[in-house]
């Protein structure tokens, strides 16, 4: 038998039970990090216990949508659950992407429960040096 000593963990578990698991029409939120790394914008989503085939990534115009479903693990009939704290159901996150990102070349990797999306910065948005011409053909205006 397991013993818990953290009263706040019990409140979190009760809140999850009251709101119920996420569904495709009303998904729960998923944790994420977003940062710029060189010429890429990187977004990482925590999806532990989710199989790669249960993840759906879509881009429409500049809206990125990630949906994932954590399904219950198959158990034998004689298993009696003592404690269940890992949330099940559907998780989703939508992000509005800037026009300066190249959504045609998004790369997605899923490793150790983390979905990582690398979105290249568009060439037109990268800093560039502007050369200045030497004004050798100056003309004087006289009046």
Describe the structure.
With 143 residues, the protein is mainly beta. The chain is 9% helix and 34% strand. The strands form two sheets. It has a four-stranded mixed sheet with strand order 1-6-5-4, with no helix packed on it. The protein has a four-stranded antiparallel sheet with strand order 2-3-8-7, with no helix packed on it. The chain starts with 6 loop residues before the first helix and ends in a 23-residue tail after the last strand. The model has no long low-confidence stretch (mean pLDDT 81).
Provide the gyration radius in Å: 25 Å
* Terminal Cα span: 100 Å
The count of DSSP E runs of length 2 or more, i.e. the number of strands, is 8
The coarse silhouette is rod-shaped
Major sheet strand order: 1-6-5-4
Order of helices and strands: HEEEEEEEE
**What is the averaged pLDDT score?**
81
Q: What's the arrangement of secondary structure elements?
A:
Layout: H1 7-19, E1 28-29, E2 32-37, E3 40-46, E4 55-60, E5 63-70, E6 89-96, E7 107-111, E8 114-120
């Amino acid at each position: 038998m397991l013993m818990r000593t953290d009263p706040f963990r019990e409140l979190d578990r009760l809140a999850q039970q009251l709101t119920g698991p996420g569904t495709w029409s009303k998904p729960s939120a998923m944790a994420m990090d977003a940062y710029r790394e060189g010429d890429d914008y990187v977004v990482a989503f925590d999806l532990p216990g989710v199989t790669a085939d249960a993840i759906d990534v879509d881009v429409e115009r500049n809206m990125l949508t990630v949906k994932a479903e954590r399904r219950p693990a198959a158990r034998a009939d004689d298993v009696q659950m003592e404690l269940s704290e890992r949330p099940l159901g559907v998780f989703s996150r939508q992000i509005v992407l800037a026009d300066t990102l190249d959504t045609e070349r998004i790369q997605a990797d899923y490793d150790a429960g983390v979905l990582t999306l690398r979105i290249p910065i568009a060439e037109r948005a990268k800093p560039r040096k502007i050369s200045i011409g030497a004004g050798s053909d100056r003309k004087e205006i006289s009046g």
